[in-house]
C-alpha cells in the first residue's frame, strides 16, 4: 500500500514536533572556508563542493526538522555534475530520515509535463534519488499540472503548485484583480483546490497530495487563499532572509495549527557567516545546527 | 562585439529563406527501429538512443531550416546522462550551422532565476553546449525574468517569455479577463513588451533579444498580442501535431512578414511513422528530411 504524501508529511511534522523545512540553495562562493572551490574551478569541482556542503547541512539538521527543500536551480549551472549531486543529496537526505521537496518549478503543456513528471516524481533506477514532492508552475492550467498529479498518485508522492510567491513583482501577474473580486493568484488557488480534491488524492488527515506554494506577502490575500484551499498543505517560503514574519506565517496554517510547512534557507545554511553564531562550535556545521535550532524556536511562537 | 540575438536569428531566417524551426522532443519509444532502446534499458542507454536520434535529425534538417528547438523535458528523465545528451546536441546543432532554442521554461524568484540564467544563458566551460535562447515562465513578474534578460544581454543570447500557450486549459489562467479589457496573457504581453524595449536590447532590425512564446489559439487575441508587442519575435509552437493552421500562424508575423519563428515537432521528427513518407528513402532520416521539406513548404503559404 502506497501511503498518501500529505499523510506522510503530516506524520513527519508531528514526529519532529515542528513544521520547519530547511531550504538548500547552495552557492559555491558562499561555502565555508575549506569547502569553497577555487575561483576558476570547473563544473565538476563546484558540484563536488556543493555536494559536500549539502551533506554537512543534512547531518546538521536531520534530527531537528522533518524535511529539506533542495532547489535544483543551484545545481543546474554545473550541468551533469550538478544534477548528479542533486540526486545524491536527495538519496542521502532520505537515508538521514528527512523528507525531500525538490524545488524544480517545472511546467509545460501536458505532453511535456508528463516527461518532467517522469523525471521528478516517478521511481527512477535503483539508487537514484527522487524527491517526495516537487514544485510546479500553474501558467498552463490543468493540462500542464495533471501529469504531475497522476504521477504523484501512482508513486505516493506530492506536488506544490505555485500560487502566491514571495517576490515583490509577483503582483504584476499574480496580483492582477479580476471582475469577480479575486486576484489571479486567488483564482489559481481555486483551481488548485479543485485539482487537490479530486478522487483519491486526499489522505486520512484531510490534506491532499496536491499542495500550494503560498508566501504570506499580503495578510488579507493569504487569509483568503487559506480559506479557498482547505485541503491543501501550504509550502511557505521566505522565513528568514526573505523577511516574512511570524504573524504573516501564522496565516498559512489552518485553525487547528496544521496544514503548512515553512522554509528558511539562507538564514540557516549560511549561519556560519552570522556573528551571532561565531561561537557555536569548531565546525561550520555547529553554526548551521544553531541556526536551524533558532529557526525551529521562532516557528514555535507561530503555533503558540 | 557581441551581436544581438534577434539580429542573428533574423539573419539566419533570411539565409535559409524560411522561419521554420524543428522541435526536438525525443521519446525513446517513438525512435526508429534500430535506434529504439530495449524496454528495460537504463537511463544511460536511453540517453544514448535519443542522442543518436537527435544527431540524425540535425543531419537531416540542418540545410533547410535556421533553427532547432530542443526540449529539455525529454532529456531530464535520464538524469545526468540525459543532460549530457542535451548539451552535446546543442553543440552539434551549432556545428551544423543551426541556431538553438533551449525549451526549458524556467522561472523562479530573482535570486534563483539568476542561477537558471547562469546554467542556460551564460558561457559554460570549453566544449559545453549553451543554447542561443531559452524559454522562460512569467508567473513571478519582472524580478523572475530580469536575470535572464541580463544574462542574455551580456552573452548575445535571447529569451522567449511564455505569453499564450497552445493547450486548451491555458485559458484557465492566461485567458482570465481583466477589468481593463485585456486577458491575463495580453497583460503579460504588455509586460514583455516593456521588458523587451529596455535600453540596449533592441537590435538593428527592430526586434529585441526578449521575445515571446505565442500560440495562435485564438485569432482575435493573437492579433491583439501582435499589436501589443511590436519589438518581440514570436516563437510559435504547435504547427503540425498540435493542429495550428496556416491562417492562424500568419497572425503571428508583423505586416512586413517577419517577427516570428514557427516550430513543428512531432510531424517532422517522427515523419518515418507516416504512411506518406514510407517511400522517402532507405533511411528514417530521408523521411525526416521529407517531413521537414513539407513543413517548410506549408509555411511558404503563410508568407505568400
Quick overview of this protein structure:
The structure is a homodimer of 304-residue chains. With 304 residues, chain A is α/β, with parallel strands linked by helices. The first copy, chain A, has helices at 5-16, 43-61, 79-95, 110-121, 142-155, 171-174, 184-196, 219-228, 246-250, 266-269, 284-302; strands spanning 20-24, 67-71, 99-106, 133-136, 158-164, 210-214, 234-236, 260-264.
Total helices of chain A: the number is 11
What quaternary form is this? homodimer
- Work out the number of β strands of chain A: 8
H/E order of the elements of chain A? HEHEHEHEHEHHEHEHEHH
| Rg of chain A, nearest Å | 19 Å
Average pLDDT of chain A works out at 94
Largest interface, C-beta closer than 8 angstroms, per-chain residues:
A-B, 61 and 61 residues
Measured between the Cα atoms of the first and last residue of chain A, the distance is 36 Å
**What does the overall shape of chain A look like?**
globular
Low-pLDDT segments of chain A: none
**Main beta-sheet strand count, sense and barrel state of chain A:** 8 strands, parallel, barrel
| Spatial strand sequence of the major β-sheet of chain A | 1-2-3-4-5-6-7-8
Helicity range of chain A: 40-55%
Structural class of chain A: alpha/beta
Beta-strand level of the residues of chain A, as a percent range?
A: 5-15%
Amino acid at each position: 500500500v502506497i501511503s498518501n504524501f500529505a499523510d506522510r508529511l503530516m506524520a513527519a511534522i508531528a514526529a519532529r514536533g515542528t513544521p520547519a523545512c530547511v531550504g538548500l540553495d547552495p552557492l559555491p562562493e558562499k561555502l565555508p572556508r575549506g569547502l569553497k572551490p577555487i575561483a576558476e574551478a570547473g563544473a565538476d569541482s563546484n558540484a563536488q563542493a556543493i555536494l559536500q556542503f549539502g551533506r554537512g547541512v543534512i547531518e546538521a539538521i536531520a534530527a531537528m526538522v522533518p524535511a529539506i527543500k533542495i532547489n535544483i536551480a543551484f545545481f543546474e549551472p554545473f550541468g551533469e555534475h550538478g544534477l548528479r549531486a542533486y540526486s545524491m543529496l536527495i538519496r542521502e537526505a532520505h537515508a538521514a530520515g528527512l523528507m525531500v521537496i525538490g524545488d524544480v518549478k517545472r511546467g509545460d503543456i501536458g505532453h511535456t509535463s508528463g516527461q518532467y513528471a517522469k523525471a521528478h516524481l516517478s521511481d527512477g533506477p535503483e539508487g537514484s534519488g527522487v524527491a517526495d514532492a516537487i514544485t510546479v508552475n500553474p501558467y498552463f492550467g490543468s493540462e500542464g499540472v495533471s501529469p504531475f498529479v497522476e504521477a504523484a498518485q501512482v508513486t505516493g508522492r506530492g506536488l506544490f503548485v505555485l500560487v502566491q510567491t514571495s517576490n515583490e513583482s509577483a503582483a504584476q501577474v499574480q496580483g492582477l484583480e479580476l471582475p469577480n473580486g479575486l486576484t489571479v493568484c486567488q483564482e489559481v488557488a481555486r483551481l488548485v483546490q479543485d485539482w487537490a480534491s479530486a478522487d483519491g488524492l486526499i489522505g486520512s488527515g484531510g490534506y491532499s497530495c496536491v499542495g500550494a506554494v503560498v508566501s504570506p506577502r499580503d495578510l488579507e490575500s493569504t487569509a483568503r487563499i487559506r480559506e479557498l484551499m482547505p485541503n491543501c498543505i501550504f509550502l511557505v517560503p521566505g522565513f528568514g532572509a526573505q523577511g516574512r514574519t511570524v504573524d504573516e506565517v501564522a496565516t498559512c496554517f489552518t485553525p487547528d495549527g496544521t496544514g503548512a510547512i515553512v522554509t528558511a534557507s539562507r538564514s540557516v545554511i549560511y549561519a556560519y557567516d552570522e556573528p551571532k553564531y561565531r561561537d557555536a562550535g569548531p565546525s561550520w556545521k555547529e553554526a548551521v545546527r544553531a541556526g536551524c535550532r533558532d529557526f525551529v524556536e521562532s516557528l514555535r511562537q507561530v503555533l503558540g
